[in-house]
Specification:
- The chain has 963 residues and is of the alpha/beta class.
- Helix content is 37%, strand content 15%.
- It has 32 helices and 30 strands.
- The strands form six sheets. It has a nine-stranded parallel beta sheet. It has an eight-stranded parallel beta sheet with strand order 9-10-11-12-13-14-15-16, with helices on one face. A five-stranded parallel beta sheet has the order 2-3-4-1-5.
- Helix 25 links the parallel strand 11 and strand 12.
- The radius of gyration is 31 Å and the shape is globular.
- One of its GO terms (molecular function) is ATP binding.
């Protein structure tokens, strides 16, 4: 990571000089020679990195030298950031008070006063630069004693040619025998066996224990054998309360606010009593059987045949968890052929037969070095997937890292080190930062990208934004097997969340020792927290059963990231001092920490770029000083339901790119003025329109042309003049993909307002989905504005007094439709399909060009109805049609439908024939609809589409509430 930091410093130095020249602002005088000296030293050191990083594996003195270099680089980055910030702020003062003739004297006095106040700061920056230069002098001299080999500095470019294609390594076979053995152990029941059997998979890190457990857990026979299946990641420490809460959440969907172990266990027992269940406890380290006994005892009420499957690195742990010797399976290494199969499938992905022939011999030698470890084969296969030249493969085969690894902490790290060294420097620092998360932590892609941005890891180019570069970096790391356990979007299959393998996490921690760390607070002791390095830069603190915020954190004055997970009761008292001491913070993430008041001294954190106060329900206001933070990129105050407004000076956050204020739980909203000044915004999840010029006006969106992703505009009923909607110039927001429209108003008004506003809207040309809520007009029931015809996904929610659904079957591109809370709809018929007599679109416009056929919902794949309490009739599209020339027209309805969900529609009597007779339907989920449930069970599923898939959903959800 040191080379990445040095690169950042060199970029900063260059940028500072350019800013001073271009803006004609000089805050620090007399340091030109110091800057030149710094640049020269850093450039000389940069040329030695390749050799130094490789030698640090077996030479602790080299590692210590690199650690010193990282420390001074961090400190230099802080000083240069302070310098650059003051340059920009001083220039903004000039812009606020331009020296025109009419105001020349006044402006000069204001600016002179500002410059006079900054004299002390300028002197301070100059002294810091001189001091850091002395430190780097010593480091530059010390490097000579190591006789590093100099190499030409090569800036590696991201290779994104194939990173959009992800391979699920779990599909690669190699554990068929082991899988069959574990499956048979789970499915075989013995009258003499224990009521609750514990089976353990034991093996070293990277050998594939979790993968094998996943294969068994998702096996079809196992799935139908057990009534309930539960998966819990345990890791270290073994927290009975956390495990119990995870079990309850898996069984019930929520553990609400339960925090006591006894209460959790009492809630679990009724859900498993009389049921056969499988509980997987992944990555167990605990050797204290007393911590497990109480939890295990509460699980004894399940049916005989219930099982617990444990994965652990230690056989002793398996015994303590209750596994008999015959129920412990020690995983062996992969065979040579299995290891080669896993390696080659990844390494030769998208390579042609000629390339494979040239590289296969070298590849087999590399695979042999994996020593039968699946993680090693997966890592090296993913690395070589992006290399096609023989010399590149030979370089991996002959790397000195293999020799160094003999003395490293673990031989398994050798292939991971090789994969790490192959990354470009900017990608290395992004990967290394992930050490801040605890093991088994699920992190979201977009949040991680914002954290990278806050640390300055992502540099925007003239044609590519930071967010795009960040997502590409994430995808590249995923494609190289640094991430796993992907959670993917149902639409485009893109990854939105993932984890890191334990051994990959170990690598990240090895790279950032004394720099990045995660700490569990599980009691009053501060032993773990005391082990922090005074030079720690990034920390995540996880609170378990202990709520006092550790005072030690206050002393970590160089901390750049503070991420808190949990709800420490003393956070309110600790926060002012915490902010006062941690002046280097760039990231402050305190989501759900019970904060009631944000102290005004937060305005002194000049480096701050990422602030997350989401889910702090008692915050009522934010201090104005906070909106003087010139460098702020991300502000998240979503789900702070008592926060009524943001300060009027929010417009000063000229660099702000992400603003989240959404709260779907409450009809109140955050008032904003000055949002029109946030011209750098890329994300604004919710914008509430106010009828008063004193608050937010829809026209304030006019200049926010960088908005992307999703935008929800609410309280459109308060728009008095539909021409105001046009002032927002939504059609210029070309990067927006989803537009939400809520028409609900706090006052009664005529329905015509909704129609006028809807007609005035001119959404962006690339919009592909829309949510329309609380609509009360009539226009959508007859004819659609042109922009709606282009939509691929639509959600209609809470159209209160509307009795009929609009003719959505006419939409030619619609692929997904979600209808929610239509409380007055009692019947869905031909008008919904676009076949009604009152249709304003002629039948000819819906007719297939190749035949006299009408296709309703031609591309619809996913359809769902939720919370339709009065819905009784769902009629089919039976009956012929005639066009104006009396030609008979046939009808095809939903020819592409794959998924149908019906939730909480208690009066619905039957499904239409076009659903029951569908040959394309793959998934049918029905819940809270007892009439349909009784009908299905009475008919034994006969006549229902894909009956075997529908059965589980009807039994599990709908019928459980009907009986």
């Amino acid at each position: 990571m040191a080379d990445a930091l040095v690169s950042v410093v060199l970029e900063q130095l260059s940028s500072i000089i350019i800013q001073e020249v271009q803006r004609e602002v000089r805050l620090v005088v007399g340091v030109e020679n110091e800057v030149k000296k710094l640049t020269s030293n850093f450039q000389a050191i940069q040329a030695m990195f390749a050799d130094a990083e490789e030698r640090q594996l077996k030479d602790q003195l080299v590692k210590h030298w690199l650690d010193q270099l990282k420390d001074v680089s961090y400190d230099m980055d802080d000083v240069l950031d302070e310098w650059g910030t003051e340059i920009a702020k001083s220039q903004s003062k000039v812009n606020e008070h331009p020296r025109k003739n009419t105001r020349k004297v006044c402006s000069f006095m204001i600016f002179s006063c500002f410059r006079f106040r900054e004299v002390g700061l300028r002197r301070d920056i100059a002294l810091k630069i001189k001091e850091l230069n002395e430190r780097i002098d010593g480091i530059a001299i010390e490097k000579n004693r190591f006789h590093f080999k100099s190499s030409e500095v090569v800036i590696k470019q991201h290779d994104h040619r194939k990173t959009v294609s992800f391979i699920d390594a779990a599909e690669v076979k190699g554990r068929e025998t082991d899988k069959g053995r574990v499956r048979n152990m789970l499915l075989t029941e013995s009258s003499q066996g224990p009521a609750l059997r514990t089976i353990s998979l034991v093996g070293m890190g990277g050998i594939g224990k979790t993968t094998l457990a996943q294969l068994v857990y998702n096996d079809h026979e196992v799935e139908i054998h057990f009534d309930k299946r539960i998966w819990v990641c345990v890791s270290d420490p073994f927290d009975e309360t956390k495990i119990a809460k995870a079990i309850l959440e898996a069984l019930k969907g929520s553990a609400s606010d339960l925090i006591e172990l006894q209460t959790l266990l009492e809630n679990i027992q009724p859900l498993i009593r009389g049921k056969k269940f499988l509980l997987v406890l992944d990555d167990v380290w605990n050797e204290d059987s007393t911590k497990w006994e109480q939890l295990k005892y509460s699980l004894m009420c399940g049916l005989p045949g219930s099982s617990i499957l444990v994965t652990t690195r230690k056989r002793n742990v398996a015994s303590r968890m209750g596994s008999s010797p015959t129920d412990i399976l020690e995983l062996g290494l992969l065979s040579t052929d299995e290891c080669w199969s896993l390696f080659s499938r990844l390494a030769f992905f998208e390579k042609n037969s000629r390339e494979r022939g040239d590289l296969e011999d070298i590849g087999r030698q590399i695979a042999a070095k994996c020593k039968g470890l699946p993680l090693a084969a997966k890592s090296l296969g993913s690395l070589l997937r992006f290399k096609s030249r023989i010399e590149e493969w030979e370089s991996v085969l002959n790397s000195h890292v293999w020799e160094s690894a003999e003395e490293a902490e673990s031989k398994i790290l050798a292939p991971l080190w090789l994969s790490y060294y192959d990354l470009p420097s900017d990608m290395r620092r992004c990967f290394s930062y992930c050490a801040v998360f605890p093991k088994d932590f699920t992190f979201e892609r977009d949040t991680l990208v914002k954290l990278w941005m806050a640390q300055g890891f992502l540099r925007e180019t003239h044609n590519k934004e930071m967010e795009v570069i960040g997502r590409q970096c994430f995808e590249a790391l995923a494609a190289r097997s640094f991430f796993q356990d992907f959670q993917k979007e149902t639409g485009d299959g893109s990854i939105y969340a993932c984890k890191m393998h334990d051994m990959v996490h170990d690598l990240a921690q090895n790279l950032t020792k004394n720099e990045c760390s995660s700490v569990d607070i599980d009691g009053p002791t501060e032993l773990k927290i005391d082990s922090f390095s005074i030079n720690a830069r990034h920390s995540m603190v996880v609170f378990r059963n202990y709520n006092s915020f550790p005072a030690t954190i206050h002393s970590l004055k160089k901390l750049r990231s503070l991420i808190v997970d949990g709800d420490p009761s003393s956070m309110n008292a600790a926060l002012p001092n915490l902010i006062a001491n941690l002046s280097c913070l760039r990231t402050l993430k305190l989501s759900g920490c019970g904060i009631e008041e944000v102290p005004s001294n937060i305005g002194k954190l000049i480096h701050l770029r990422h602030v997350d106060f989401s889910w702090n329900e008692n915050i009522k206001e934010l201090p104005e000083e906070m909106f003087e933070l010139y460098n702020m990129l991300t502000l998240d105050v979503s789900f702070c339901n008592k926060l009524e407004r943001l300060p009027d000076n929010i417009g000063r956050l000229a660099k702000l790119r992400h603003l989240s204020i959404h709260d779907w739980r409450d009809l109140s909203f955050v008032k904003m003025r000055g949002v029109k000044g946030l011209t750098s915004l890329r994300e604004l999840d919710d914008f509430h329109v106010s009828g008063s010029d004193k608050e937010s006006n829809i026209g304030d969106l006019r200049n926010l042309n960088h908005l992307q992703g999703s935008l929800m505009i609410s309280w459109l009923g308060d728009v008095k003049d539909p021409d105001e909607v046009k002032k927002a110039e939504l059609n210029s927001k070309k990067h927006l993909a989803h537009l939400g429209l809520n028409f609900q108003s706090r006052t009664d008004r005529e329905k015509i307002h909704d129609d006028e506003v809807l007609e005035a809207l001119e959404p962006p040309p690339n919009i592909y989905s829309s949510r329309i809520g609380y609509y009360q007009g009539v226009i959508l029931l007859r004819v659609f504005p042109g922009w709606i015809n282009k939509l691929r996904a639509v959600e209609l929610r809470d159209w209160r007094k509307i009795e009929n659904l609009p003719p959505l079957g006419k939409l030619p591109s619609l692929e997904a439709l979600h209808v929610i809370g239509m409380e007055c709809v009692g019947r869905v018929g031909r008008e919904f399909l676009g076949l009604g007599d009152d249709s304003d679109i002629s039948i000819g416009e819906m007719t297939s060009s190749s035949s006299n056929t009408i296709i309703a919902f031609p591309k619809l794949k996913s359809l769902s109805f939720w919370d339709m309490e009065e819905w009784e009739e769902w009629e089919g599209g039976e009956g012929g049609n005639e066009d104006k020339t009396n030609i008979s027209i046939s009808t095809i309805i939903m020819p592409s439908l794959r998924s149908l969900e019906i939730w909480d529609c208690p009066k619905l009597k039957a499904l239409p024939d076009y659903v029951l007779q569908s040959t394309t339907l793959e998934q049918l989920k029905i819940r809270g609809s007892p009439i349909l449930g009784e009908q299905y069970l009475k008919e034994g599923g006969k006549g229902w589409p894909n009956a075997s898939r529908a059965t589980a959903n009807l039994k599990q959800s709908n019928y459980s509430s009907a009986i």
